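[SOLVED] Need 3D model of a two-part complex

Original post:
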Amino acid sequence: MKKQPLLEVRDLKTRFSTETGLVTAVDGVCFQIYSGETVGLVGESGCGKSVTSLSILRLFGKHSGTRLEGKILFEERDLLTVPLDEIQTIRGNKISMIFQDPMTSLNPVYTVGDQIAESIVLHQKLDRKQALAKAVTMLELVGIPSPESRIHDYPHQLSGGMRQRVMIAMGLACQPKLLIADEPTTALDVTIQAQILELMQKLQCELNMGIILITHDLGVVAEVCDRVLVMYLGQIVEECPVEVLFDNPLHPYTCGLIRSIPSMATNRREELHVIAGMVPSLYHVPAGCHFAPRCPYADAQCGNPPELVTIDAEHKVRCWHPGARASGERRLA
Amino acid sequence: MVKYIFKRICYLLPVLAVVAIVDFVIIHLTPGDPAAVMLGSDATDADLAKLREQLGLNLPIYVQFGRWLWGVLHGNLGWSIFMDMPVSTAIWQHLGPTVSLTILAEVIAIAVAIPLGVAAAANRGTWLDQLFMTLALLGISIPSFWIGLNFILLFAVKLGWFPAAGYQPLSSGLVNHLKYLIMPAVSLGIMQGALIARMTRSSLLEVLNENYIRTAEAKGLKYWVIIFKHALRNAFIPILTVIGLTFAVLIGGAVVTETVFNIPGIGKLVVTAVLRRDYAVIQGAILMTATAYVLINLVIDLLYALIDPRVRLSK
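Solution:
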C-alpha cells in the first residue's frame, strides 16, 4: 500500500500584486512530505522558498494582496480554501513554523515563558499555570539551563542561540505533525548551528514529525535532510534523495550550486566556481526554461518551458538536457 | 525598577534648578527698573522705593535669588499686587478649572483616538482608514477656538443643551461640573485626539511589519489578539509620548479656549497677569507650568518602563 503523505502541495502558485503589476513568486510547485522525514528546500535568495513555506500556513497578513492558487492538502483538507478560523487552529498546533531571525522573531515586551505558554493555552486549553509548567518542560527539552528561572526572562536577556531554542520550543510546544523551519540556523554561529540541527533531529525522532527545512546552505542539507527540493525562480527544478543530489545532480543549476561549495580539497589559489549571471528579477522571468540565460548548455530548445520529468522513482528534474555536464556536451564559453 | 525610578527622579533635580534660575532671572531681564515697569509711569518716587524694598531689588542678586528660592521651597511664590493675595493662592484658585479641563479633554481624546487609530491601522488602505485619517487631519487643522465658537452657537444658543460659557467647580456636583466643561473639553480634545490617532496608526503600522507579529500569527492567534496584545503594547511608547506632550501643553493653560468659554483657569490668569505686568504671578505660573511639565515627563518615563522591559535596563 502506498504511504499517505502528511502534506501534499499541488501546483501552488503564489502571486503578489505590486504597484508595477502582478508578480509570481511561486510558480506551480508540487511536492509531498511524509511523517518522520526531513525535506530540504534549497535555492538562492529570492527563489521562492520562504514564500512557499509561508503559503502553506497563509501567513501573509490581512491586506498584503497575495493570491494563492493550487491545493495544499493536509489531513484531507485544502489549507488554501479552509476558512481563516480553521487555519488558525492548525497554525502553531499541527503545523508550526520557526523563522530565520531569532533576534526579531520574539516579542520584546513579553517573557519567553509567556510566549511559549501562549500557544499551549490556545491550542491545548490548559490554564496559564499548567501552560507555564509545560513551557518549562519545553525549555528543558531544547537544552536551556535552569528553565524555571529562564521562563521569566525577556528575549533581550537571552543570546541568539538561546532565542532560537526558545523559538523551537515554541514551535514544538503543541507537538506538531509538521515543522517548517525557515533557515533556523542562518543567524547563528557554527557550533550553535550544529547543536540546533541535532536538537531538531532528536525531537523529530521522538515526535515522528515531518520537517521542511528551508536553507541555502548545502552543508546543512547534507547533514540532516532525507530528500531535497531545489528551487529556482519560483519553480522546483530538481527533486531527489540527498545522496543523489551530491552524487548525481542532473540540473545544471544544481550542479552549479554544488560546485560553488568551497571545500578543503580545492586549491586555495583556485577561484571558487560561480554561476554566471544574476538571478533575474521576478518582473522579467525568462519565457522558456527560467535558468536558460545563465545556463552554459542552453540551446534553442530551452526557449520552451521544460516540465518536471521523472528520471527514476525518486528523482525528478526540470531540464531539456539533464546531466549535460556528465556527458560533457555543448559546453559554451 | 526601584533603581530606575530613583535615577529618573535624580535627573529631575538639575532640570528643576535650571527652571528656577531662568524663572528668577526673567524679572531682571526687563529693561530698566522692574519696579517702574510694574507700577507704570505715574508712580511716585516713594512708591517706587517702597516696591523696590518690598521686592528686595536693592539687595545683591544672589541674596535676592536665595531669598526667592527659600520662599519657593516653602510654597511662597510672592505677592500679587493687583490681586492683593499670595501668588500661590491665585494659582491654586485657577488650577482647579485647568486641571479638570485638561483631564476631561485628554480622556475624551484618548478614548476616541486610540480605537480610531487602531481601526485605521488594522484596516490599512481601506475606505475606513482613509475616512479616519481625513477626520484626524481635519481635527489637527481646525483651530479649537473655532470649534468652540461653533459648539456654543449650536449646542448652547440654538439647542440650549449646555451653558454657553462659565465654570462650576466639582463641589457644585459632578453633572453640573461636566455640563460646563464638556464643550470646551471636546473642542480641545479633538485636536489632541487627532494627534494621538495619527500617532497610534503610524506606530501600529510600523509594529505590524515586525517579525514577531508574524510569529504571533504563526501561533494561530486571532487577528485582534495579535493587534491588541502583541502589537499595541509595542506601539505604545510613541503614543504615550504624544499623550504626555498634549497633557503638558494643556496643563499650562489652554489660553484661547479658556477665554472663549470664560473659564477661570491658568490660561486666563496668565493672560490677565501679562496684560497688567503682574510679574510675581507670571513668574509663579511659569514655575508651576514648567514643574508640571517635568513631572508629567517623569510619569511618562515611568510608564515607558512599565510597558517595555528593555527601558528598565537601558543606561
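Edit: The first strand of chain A starts at residue 7 and ends at 18.
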